[in-house]
Amino acid sequence: MRLFLEKGYGSTSVADVLRAARANSGSLYHFFPAKHDLLLAVLERYRSEIEPRLLAPAWRGVADPIERVFALLRVYRRLLVETGFFYGCPVGSLALEIHEPDPAVRRLLAANFERWAGAVRGCLREAGDRLPVDADPRELSLFVLAVMEGAVMQARTHRSLEAFDASVRRLRDYFRRLEKGARRPRLRPAPAAKEKIR
Amino acid sequence: MRLFLEKGYGSTSVADVLRAARANSGSLYHFFPAKHDLLLAVLERYRSEIEPRLLAPAWRGVADPIERVFALLRVYRRLLVETGFFYGCPVGSLALEIHEPDPAVRRLLAANFERWAGAVRGCLREAGDRLPVDADPRELSLFVLAVMEGAVMQARTHRSLEAFDASVRRLRDYFRRLEKGARRPRLRPAPAAKEKIR
DNA sequence: GTCTATATACGGATAGAC
DNA sequence: GTCTATCCGTATATAGAC
To answer: C-alpha distances in angstroms, B66 versus B134, B140, B141?
Structure first.
């Protein structure tokens, strides 16, 4: 997982994996008949770790569903900073690296995106009528994912947070405007949304 | 260029290039001492072609500056459809494929993003006070680029336009809300923006 | 500048003893 | 299941005649 994240799939040789895992050729090939199977296993694990290793820590102490969306984005920001813009979104990188139309790989990449966007969608549904009815949660969740991937891509390329922060700020602005335009659940003007986190 | 777009940099062998160009090893290496230099040349050409081969055709017959932003996105949509989700944004793909910290390559990738976002920024500036003053054109342009790249990534992965169209629709919604919130430049309500294209 | 032939290393994958 | 040794193709790059 670490090697594919750091160097990508194609540039990681099986020899690299053997060295990093301190395993021998025969052992590795006993469990993974081809390098390809290694990729499938990695993508499966990414998917299964979205919940416990990404969402759970990101949302610890963040109750507000819309804040959770931005707490998730903050994880990627921190990852970029902490690794000197070396790590980004592992799934996104692999998605653009793999050009072969291998159906099994594509399915797993799609499943990763689906789970990520599905989690965001859950937040948006939970936000209920703080968002206008025409702001379809499914559409919005795919939009949030697009912004995250594009923001990470730019950050890694420029080795700078500017584009990332700018994108998140504009997304935040969009959500603010959506909330303002939503039908009011209260009789009195809503109190300013809590935004202390961060 | 075509090979890097179709197969990526790493998976394209020099032999592939030789075959496609109907050239011989000696000839190619006479002009490009290493494969690496081929990548640099391709990235330079992408940058120089953004204006004449991407923006100019995209904006033919589209005068409204904000419509131009969406006309640009439509080019990527059409590219995805026409190639069966094979081609996306060549720069974005290379940006995520290349993990080496090669400064020359990174600079050129960044320059490509910069020119693209710069063009969008020009549109937004031209839109003047149809957008609110707090909608910084620089921030907005980086946001638009992020949305495009993330939308293309999802489209290619799912081999479907759903996420792409959803993202563009949400971006459109954002711009509508921005325009609504801007201070009105005219005394009478502005006539509906031209949107005949497409 | 272009041609053919080739150097040299490394890629994924396998053989077969233990 | 794990070990060492190795097969064989393909990779980038070069040599040297023309």
So the answer is: 17, 12, 11
pLDDT for residue A197: 52
For residue B114, give both structure tokens.
Answer: 């910069």
Decide if A158 and B6 are in contact by the 8 Å CB cutoff. no
Q: Measure the CA–CA gap between B183 and B49, rounded to whole angstroms.
A: 36
B59, two tokens: 């904006």
Give nucleotides in strand D with any atom < 7 A to a protein C-beta. 1-6, 10-17
Name the DSSP class of A185.
S
**3-state secondary structure at position B159:** coil
Q: Please tell me the distance from the alpha carbon of residue A107 to that of residue A104, in angstroms, as a whole number.
A: 5
The helix/strand/coil state of B98 is: coil
d(CA A175, CA A181): 10
- Count of A-B CB contacts under 8 Å: 155
DSSP one-letter code for B9? S
Q: Residue type at A103?
A: P
Q: Do B99 and A174 touch (CB under 8 A)?
A: no
pLDDT in tens, A37-57: 999 999 999 999 999 999 999
Q: CA B131, CA B43: separation in Å to the nearest integer?
A: 33
A134-168 pLDDT tens trace: 999 999 999 999 999 999 999 999 999 999 999 99
Domain architecture of chain A: domains with CATH: 48-181 (1.10.357.10)
- Cα–Cα distance, B145 to A147 (Å, whole number): 9
